[in-house]
Amino acid sequence: MLNITKLTKRFGDKIAVDAANISVAQPTMIGIIGRSGAGKSTLLRMLNRLSDASDGSIIFDGQDVTALRGAAKRDWQSQCAMIFQQFNLVPRMDVVSNVLHGTLNKRSTMATLFNLYPQADIHRAIEILDRLGIAEQAPKRAEALSGGQQQRVAIARALMQDPKIILADEPIASLDPMNAQVVMRSLRTIHEEDGRMVIANLHTLDTARRYCDRVIGMRDGRIVFDGTPAQLTTGVARDIYGAGADFSEAATSTEIETLNRPGVREAEAYV
Amino acid sequence: MADITLTQSPQGVDSIQSSYVAQVQRRRLYGGLTLLIFVVLMVSGFNVADDRNAGGFWDGLHQIGDYPADVLSEAWEKRADLPALMAKYFPALIETVNIAAVSTLIGAIGGLALSLLGTRGLARWPRLIPLFRRISDIMRAVPEIVIALVLIFVLGGGPVPAMIAIAIHTAGALGKMFSEVAENADLKPVEGLASTGATWSQRMLLGVLPQVAPNYISYALLRFEINIRASAILGFVGAGGLGYELRNAMAWGPGRFDEAGAIFILLFGTIVFFDQVSSRYRNRLTEGQGQ
Lengths: 271, 291
Fold this sequence. Notes:
The complex is a heterodimer of chains A (about 270) and B (about 290). Chain A is α/β, with parallel strands linked by helices and about 270 residues long. In chain A, about 40% of the residues lie in helices and about 20% in strands. Chain A has helices spanning about 40-50, 70-80, 95-100, 110-115, 120-130, 145-160, 175-195, 205-210, 235-240, 255-260, 265-270, and strands at about 1-10, 15-25, 30-35, 55-60, 65, 80-85, 165-170, 195-200, 215-220, 220-225. Chain A is globular. The N and C termini of chain A lie far apart (about 40 Å). Chain B is flat, with a radius of gyration of 27 Å.
């Protein structure tokens, strides 16, 4: 389904992603973990074609994504939705308009400028919002919502695109643990109910282990681990994060339960 | 507040949908009406203006290229003279650029004083802030050409009235832009300097100016570009420089269009040159700030 071969991104003489090979046969929920600067975001941005690959190829359903230009590239982007750490909504527009932005690829500039979306689309946008539990917020401005709600609006925008893949770049890094849980659970539900592929950059091990079917570990631009959550032992995690023996998984956790576990405070002191 | 379970809304999706659609339709109606009124006003306004016009817009439209074509064809016939004419008018160009440079400098100093005196938090006399703001409003509200005409009447023709006129307008315009920048300046250094017993002017020059200097210089350069154009135009009303020569060449009609052509080339080249230089320098100032 998705085949990434020797995908490389260079910024000057620095290599951000170094010959990444990933092959996915069926819609899966994939978590990518690694330290900040390991190349996780660059990898996702190349998949969405927000930035161009220096080398290598991305093949999706037989189509070479890296070679797409112009309208074909934008068409690919509409099939490959992206969710950002800072939500990237238009703050002064209302929630439904933000969700309707998911259909921009199919509409003309003039129609969208005058807010002339078909009624069916508006109804669908509100249904998606309802599915994510924030339908009441529909007429409010996006900036008036809390972080967790804004991220769910961003997910709704992604769903409005009716994408084959949903890319999530650190979707919960700016959220508190409660909202993080809601957002991750929404992504998991979308994967299970709609059968969409979800690829999420995550900065905590336990989130990856809990919500993903497959975990990919990156370190310094290279893929150093690719397997099931069960194979992700503490030793492997130490390798991915390049940490010493003092590394404790709980230290990276955002789950509420771990806060009460003894030893977390000490571990945090090391990190 | 986060609802952990993705509950369905108590209101019901249908009612939310219908109320939102109603809201959208109302918005579209208002938007459509506004657009309609705008179009009607534009069309009727154009017709009124066209009726009052001596020549008529549609009758004159096809002749729009005639005059430039005359100028260009005559200049092309005498193209061998162009370099000599450009050399002849080069001093006038220097005069025009000089007027612009001096007036920008004086205007920027005036604008600096006006902006610091008119910014909340920095002003020397906080009660007089509205006064200084109105002064800068008035200075930029009066067009350069009006001030120049009055001054030429009083002082006689020449570069000095033009320089004063442009400097006054520049001080008002830059005062406004400078004070917007100064409003965002960090007040902590100013407080630090105040704690050492510094005077107001020391606090401003040593505490505020280093923070805002890149933006100020960038605005001043932008103003310099504008002032080159302004000083060329002021030549038309007798303020000397390239504009004066251009008016003479154009007003005397056919026979001197080669001179007009030479002046156009000089003026155009100068404006493009200074535009490029200052935009490159301004880019460096704004982008290089972090380094």
